[in-house]
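Board work, copied verbatim: Maleylacetoacetate isomerase
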Amino acid sequence: MVSDTVLFDYWRSSASYRVRIALNMLAIPYRTVAIDLLATEHRQPAHLARNPQGLVPVLLIDGETLTQSLAIIEYLSETRPNTGLLPPDALGRQRVRALSYAIAMDIHPICNLSVVSHIMQQSDDPDAARLAWMGKFIRDGLNAFELMLDRPETGEFCHKDQPTMAELCLVPQIYNARRWSVDLSAYPRATAIAEKCERLPAFAAAHPDRAARSSSAAG
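↓ predict structure ↓
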């Protein structure tokens, strides 16, 4: 049976990675349509009709077209019972949102493909410029995130003892940090939480390597 839920994503997109984890955690069946960012498929009319920003992910679910990964995750939290993606109390939700936004709104946009491509065009050594740029802003962001975890509310995970939306942002960011050779030794709490998550089936199934193989098989 073909799922009515469709995720338009790119295997290495952090935002898409977040939504894949959420769908897996909630056991929502979906099929993937790959949008190749390197081939600029996100700028083609068909995708712009889905999302005028020309970004991934786009999720077709419940007869609606949803964009922006955190807004999608919050929608899933609000429309599916007992997801655990956001805590039940207002202060808990505020903290999980703050942790999530620290990555998704402060680190991710600066390190996005369009920004980094522009930086590379300004340099005589594009690869070195990209590596330096990614390293600086990932380190700066993770430095702050590690300090944000130094709170009594931090438990086995970022907030108490189960994964929330914060982990859905953290795990893709740690993946990116490793990809760009960032030394993670200064972030023991964040790294330990991410590694714990990576062993959970919902996170493992959403990993970019798995997503890339799925896209290749679908093609």
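Residues 90-203 form a domain with the Glutathione S-transferase Yfyf (Class Pi); Chain A, domain 2 fold (CATH 1.20.1050.10).
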